[in-house]
Amino acid sequence: MISQKEYARRRKQLMRMTGEGSVIIVRAAPEKIRNNDVHYAYRQDSDFLYLSGFREPGAMLVLVPGGKGGKAVMFCREKDPKREMWDGPMAGLDGAIADFGMDQSFPMEEADKHLPALLKGSERIYYDLGRDIDFDHKLIGWMNEFRSKAHRDFHAPDEIIALDHLLHDMRLFKSRVELTAMRKSARVAVEGHILAMQSCKPGMNEADIHAVLLHTFTRHQCETSYLPIVGSGANACVLHYIANRDPMDDGDLLLIDAGAEYDGYASDITRTFPVNGKFSAAQKDLYEVVLAAQLAAIDRSREGQQWDDVHEAAVEFVAQGMLDLGIIKGTLEQALEEETYARYYVHKTGHWLGLDVHDVGDYQVDGHSRALEPGMVFTVEPGIYIRQDDQTVAERWRGLGIRIEDNVVVTREDPRILTSGAPKTVSDIETMMAG
Ligand code: GLY
Ligand code: MN
Ligand code: MN
């Protein structure tokens, strides 16, 4: 588990960056109703979690830089034994200090009373507007009130600055502790994918494989980091297929995109393999194209390369491979220039990975593709999807959807693949499925 020391370190680092005279406000995620009287499983806001480790709703973190390391204040729900009988233990005001390293805590209902006092005298507020309109209005109201009363005794904050630039840049670079959590999350997801390969047989339903994944994640005390995609045959061409309830036919491929979430951190793996354990010639030919593209893109995932270089490496191999197979026509230059490959490769090659599966952080800096640096973690996931009704290609390619996705850490040396335990060469997959 991420330690309180690490959470405190993050808060201090953020306060150092915003500096004295600023106040930082981060709010917990709201609860969401699924239907009458029933909530969706609560998932804490990732920014809030990153800075506090606090998993309860109805809370707000306020950081006030200055003095020795600044001050951390938690507004949260008061302990309520009646409520605890229904929902389990609550940290309460004392727990926020004793267990979460806060310097002060107040009941959330008293935010109107205590928050203005924390803001008074500050020069700027770091806060992400637009997530909670009611609270935005309150904050602006307090600022206006201060301004009308401000005199030489105290300063009135006159700026609200988006917090996400600073905070998300911190989140983009993973610490050693974060990488440990991500390795565990990856390990659990790898186990799920291996068990899925080993249990898959023609005649089973996609739902059977979905259940194998959920069983594996749950018994390792992980959640799914997003709704798993278990798409056989042409379902694999539906990029966000989550129904996962068709029978799986002999001769079809199965695409599984599923990741675990451990201690808040996501993994995100895709493997595509034959339902019956043996690739057909056409499946193998197309699979090898995606695999070559993925390996080329991973090899490009190095310090000093740019984010776009990773995508371009994959695109070049996908385009050349599809030209060689006659799926698209012309020269490589034409394919790249006219983007003829894009009919079948419709997404980008990856995204940052962390507390959010599509993690935060800018992909461009000053209008240029971002240079890769050690500590960045992202997915590399090229894919080719040929619709069943595509009359422009030979019949053997129709209805094939193939993606291969791994999670990669940029280091000072070779890229480190967190998810390499899941087989991905044709022979490794066939051997695993035969075993
Ligand atoms: N599973 C979501 C993604 O691959 O981006
Ligand atoms: Mn994925
Ligand atoms: Mn992904």
Please state the structural category: alpha+beta
The CATH homologous superfamily of the largest domain is termed Creatinase/methionine aminopeptidase superfamily
Counting H and I runs of at least 4 residues, what is the number of helices?
13
Percentage of residues assigned to helices: 25-40%
CATH class of the largest domain: Alpha Beta
Compute the number of structural domains: 2
Main beta-sheet annotation: 6 strands, mixed
Which range does the strand content fall in?
15-25%
The poorly predicted ranges are none
Q: What would you call the shape?
A: elongated
The counted number of beta strands is: 21
Cα radius of gyration in angstroms = 25 Å
CATH topology of the largest domain: Creatine Amidinohydrolase
What is the second-level CATH architecture of the largest domain?
Alpha-Beta Complex
Structure description:
With 435 residues, the chain is an alpha+beta fold. The protein has two domains: 4-170, Creatinase/prolidase N-terminal domain (Creatine Amidinohydrolase, Chain A, domain 1, 3-Layer(aba) Sandwich), CATH 3.40.350; 173-434, Alpha-Beta Complex (Creatine Amidinohydrolase). It has 13 helices and 21 strands. The strands form seven sheets. It has a six-stranded mixed sheet with strand order 6-5-4-1-7-8, with helices on both faces. Strands 9-12-13 form a three-stranded antiparallel sheet. Helix 6 links the parallel strand 7 (124-126) and strand 8 (159-161). Helix 8 packs antiparallel against helix 9 (206-219), helix 8 crosses helix 13 and helix 10 (281-299) runs antiparallel to helix 11. It is elongated, with a radius of gyration of 25 Å. The model has no long low-confidence stretch (mean pLDDT 96). The site of one manganese (II) ion has 5 residues, from loops.
